[in-house]
Amino acid sequence: MDEWEEGTTTTTSNNGSLWASGEGSFGGDRAGRGKGFRSGGGFKSFSSAGIDENGNEDKGSSWNSDEGGFRGRGRGRGGGRGFGGRGFRNEGGRDGDGDGGGFVGGLGGRGGRGGFRPGGGDGGREGGGGGYRGKDEEVFSRGSNECGEGDHENAGPKVTYVPPALSEDESSIFAHYESGINFDKYDDILVDVSGHDPPKAIMTFEEAALCESLNRNVSKSGYKKPTPVQKHGIPIISAGRDLMACAQTGSGKTAAFLLPILQRLMADGVAASQFSEVQEPEVIVVAPTRELINQIYMEARKFAHGTCVRPVVVYGGISTGYTIREVLKGCNVLCGTPGRLLDIIGRGKIGLSKVRYLVLDEADRMLDMGFEPDMRKLVSSPGMPPKEDRQTLMFSATYPEDIQRLAADFLKTDYLFLAVGVVGGACSDVEQVVVQVTKFSKRDQLLEVLKTTGTERTMVFVETKRQADFIATFLCQEKVPTTSIHGDREQREREQALGDFRSGKCPVLVATSVAARGLDIKDVQHVVNFDLPNNIDEYVHRIGRTGRCGNTGKAVCFFDPEADGNLARSLVKVLSGAQQEVPKWLEEVAFNAHGTIGFNPGGRVFASTDSRKGGSFQNDRTTSQPAAALGVAGDDDEWE
Ligand SMILES: Nc1ncnc2c1ncn2[C@@H]1O[C@H](COP(=O)(O)OP(=O)(O)OP(=O)(O)O)[C@@H](O)[C@H]1O
What we know:
- This protein is α/β, with parallel strands linked by helices.
- Among the domains are: 191-420, P-loop containing nucleotide triphosphate hydrolases (Rossmann fold); 430-639, P-loop containing nucleotide triphosphate hydrolases (Rossmann fold, 3-Layer(aba) Sandwich), CATH 3.40.50.300.
- Helices cover 25% and strands 12% of the residues.
- It has helices at 170-173, 212-220, 228-238, 253-267, 290-303, 320-328, 338-346, 363-366, 372-379, 401-407, 442-453, 465-477, 491-503, 536-543, 561-564, 568-577, 584-594, and strands spanning 10-11, 50-51, 57-58, 161-162, 191-194, 243-246, 283-286, 311-314, 333-336, 357-361, 391-396, 416-420, 430-436, 457-461, 482-485, 508-511, 524-529, 553-559.
- The strands form 4 sheets. The chain has an 8-stranded mixed β-sheet with strand order 5-12-6-11-10-7-9-8, sandwiched between helices. Strands 13-18-17-14-16-15 form a 6-stranded parallel β-sheet, sandwiched between helices.
- Helix 13 links the parallel strand 15 and strand 16.
- This is RNA helicase.
């Protein structure tokens, strides 16, 4: 065995998930350890057994066992053990040191007050187990890096999770949802391509002259005509140009880069080889979250179906040994989150000298303070061709001007900037409603909203991981079938949560910003911003989980003037930019908060176009600080 081989690898199936199982359900309330979410270890949506360090089922000590709460129970003394016995992120004490060892919990320990205690008050009866302690009580300590677990492979217990095998069935590979009534309206959106000598746009997929198998796969995917970002992006990439592309959420950016890249590889007869100890991919795609990179991989796999080109995905939270075995089966298109990607490269299993394309999806996120160091590390890794010798492609729906300037470091000087609509603008197919709330009224107002959404898929965004558990618990107690996704959940749980949401088993998904970008889930009709994010770009991405591919959607935003005043002005701007009604009271809040039209929260500069033209929204320019100084990811998020 190589050093990366793990002793045991267990393939697990995602079964046994019940959002309200008899075994305690969310915020389990067992054995008189307190009531409801005031104790009992927080959100607990699963009834399946855990996996111990060796990949074995571990009924007695896992996060979901009787003894161990997901984050430790609000019970007395130390005892039991957590998942691997160590804090997953070395943050013992944050989420569940003590009794029962929460998955994230620290080393045993005792004391503290257990239970889930919203907003202070008395803790779980006997204390001792950590658990959630309410927003007012503590500020989460951060891990060493915003990126979270996926990026620091040595930071926690050995991960043994292996995702379930993918179906080879064509109906599953090519499953898709229909484009909506507004798909043709994409053609009315203004497109601006700046830079020297851009190639002519295509109007049809035929003009893209895709090879036969790729063409067949495009048809099987239900694509009849290209979206604007595809019409312009495909010929730009095919012409060998570097590209920074901006187009609204849900408008087909993924295919805009995958199709021309795959076309080139197929035309050149690139074929995966499993006889090489070191794999040398032609393409590297990076994205900020596990779920998103997995989705991009699934798209690549779909378009490459039946050809010799082999995409592979690598991300944190799954067994490294498994991941490397997958890579060594042959790898042309390597999709990864930055941490796991750098880890695998560092292990010498990936050679970079053949890289022709480097793609940064959600590029503004990949270059903000959370990931920029990793991106610089990636491009300066041994063997990686310099930017002059590779094609670098960046895609997002938002590009703050400061990030654009930084991005230029990674691109050739003659890169093209493609803007479909207003850079950073919200998708106009999403109806946006802003509701004035107080922090005390939010939960009731959420219930009111959910009464109107019924069984339609709804994503509820909150700001912190514990808030996600808290709200999910609350909704389940109110008999709303809910699941949650955030960075403190195990990968299996995250996948299970998304699966339950996709299937409609849990039509409500409570999420942190980890699910804000890129996720393309069928039939998400509603997004609720229960907590507003601290920057407007995040808002634009969050509401973009609905209203995709010409379909319509609705986003309700809870606005608490006490807490959200800073966002008022940019929210007004986004609403009016998307021809949405701006409530009078919000305009007043925006004016009162900042007095002038010149305010821009956080000092960000929202570019409406290529920053090389000098940018616009100049009125907003109060300061222009480097992204790292702006706290772009300064909230309690948990990226890969
Ligand atoms: N030309 C097309 N015809 C029909 N469907 C398409 C076409 N292009 C893309 N789609 C579908 O539209 C959906 C949204 O595409 P995609 O996820 O690439 O959007 P995006 O622009 O990357 O969004 P985000 O900004 O949220 O990441 C996907 O389901 C995709 O398969």
